[in-house]
Amino acid sequence: MFENNNFENENTENIQGEFAEDAVNETAEEAAASEATESADNPEFNTANEPAADKPPMYNWVRDDYTPKSTPVFTEHRKSSGKKGLIAVALVCTVLLSAFLGFAGGFFASRIFNNRNDVQVPTTNITSEQLAAADSSSFNAAAVAAVGLESVVEITTEVVSRSTFMGDYVTNGAGSGVIIKEDGYIVTNHHVIEGASKITVRTRNGKEYPATIVGYDAKTDLAVIKIEVSGLVPAAYGTSADLVVGQPVLAIGNPLGELGGTVTEGIVSALDREVQVEKQVMRLLQTDASVNPGNSGGGLFDGKGRLVGVINAKSSGSGIEGLGFAIPIDTAKTVIDELIANGYVTGRAEAGIEVTYIDERTAYLYRLGDEGVYISAVTRGSAAEAAGLLSGDRIEEIDGKEIDTPQEAVDVIQEHKAGDTVDFKIERQDKDMVVKVTLDEQKPSLASLF
User: Among candidates 249, 252, 253, 259, which has minimal Cα distance to 286?
Assistant: First the structure.
């Protein structure tokens, strides 16, 4: 039907035939003369001499020429028909309207069904378990929120700072935390409690408790604090390894430090996203659930109300929305257990040095030689001091790997464990030498937080 180019001729012939049956008694000669006159006066209407190939397709006619071209014939006979002519008018209108509506309905129906049949459903190779987990139809946000809210707390902090002109002054901070044990253990971010002299926790029932630091790990931005209370509702751990992109999740926290118990819904936007947070490269979950300052340390929950991530960052770029990040729970669980048991993550290696990059101009001004990564400080009593490294040494290689940036030096050390011996190739006073350093275990001082 869509490709019928004879639509106009067929309707014109039908209209003329029906009109002739109801017209005033005319002789055959008069009718022929009338038709001849029409063709002469309206050459566009006389389609007999027009090649079919030059006629526009049906859909162009409907779109561009709503008024039928049989109108001149209809108008002429209406003037000479009297009462029967009026009947003929109504009949012609009915025929024209029916033809137009029938054509238009068929045209649009054809477009709709054709478009529908063209839709291709993408397929992905995922397991049935993953598909069930990602099924948004089974996600009950209210039920998940009811479970998660009981285990998420508000955290406020006080940090005492010192100024030459103002003396000591206190700045306040806020964040979130998740209860992980019924006897008061709570996980949060290291940056939430860093430098705090006072930490207060407010639970779901509105009660406030002072908290102490159990341990922290700056590398993973995790910390565990404790309040002296029992009978709390801990979060159930999920498994971040089972998450799929597009799976619905809820973020629960204390945005702006004033809106505790705020729940936002979103999806898992990406897995294992490499993000640099405060000069530390981390592999995080990405979500489009709304995350704001104060959400740090809060929980990311799956459709079964299980904790699958610890919120720790959001994009702060102008005009950027829907970019929140969380530490995967599979990463966090190991660190949490270490912090509760030891106060720090055991086995982490350190050399006991601070390094910095010095460019060519600065190196020339201080007569240091070439540009590169230099040791800026050596910790007293450290492995580096025992091995003989000095401030001002330029590091060329560590363990056979060329060092061009401070981060590369840190990365090589962190690839080892405490007790390993590594070779430092350094330049000192225009001479190259190799210094063997037996790495110590990294033990952060909790005293530095108070």
Answer: 249
**CATH code, 146-227:** 2.40.10.10
Q: DSSP letter string over 324-368?
A: EEEEEHHHHHHHHHHHHHHSS-TTBEE-SEEEEEE-HHHHHHTT-
Q: In the predicted model, what is the mean pLDDT of residues 31-40?
A: 48
Q: Report domain extents, the chain.
A: 7-118, 146-227, 236-342, 349-443
CATH architecture assignment, domain 236-342: Beta Barrel (2.40)
Question: Could you read off the pLDDT of 320-339 as tens digits, one per residue?
Answer: 666 889 999 999 999 999 99
Neighbour-count burial of 430, counting CB atoms closer than 10 A to its CB (0-12 exposed, 13-18 middle, 19+ buried): exposed
DSSP string computed for 160-211: EEEETTTEEEEEEEEEEEEE-STTSEEEE-HHHHTT-SEEEEE-TTS-EEEE
Q: Do domains 146-227 and 236-342 have the same CATH topology?
A: yes
Catalytic residue numbers? 191, 221, 296
* Alpha-carbon gap, residue 302 to 292, rounded angstroms: 19
424 in helix, strand or coil?
Answer: strand
Q: Mean of the pLDDT values across residues 173-181?
A: 93
Give the tens place of pLDDT for each residue, 200-210.
999 999 999 99
Q: What is the CATH number of domain 349-443?
A: 2.30.42.10
pLDDT of residue 267: 92
* Cβ(200)–Cβ(155) below 8 Å: yes
Neighbouring CB atoms inside 10 A of 138's CB total 11
Distance CA 257, CA 407 (A): 33
Of 212 and 41, the one with more pLDDT: 212
3 state DSSP class of 411: helix
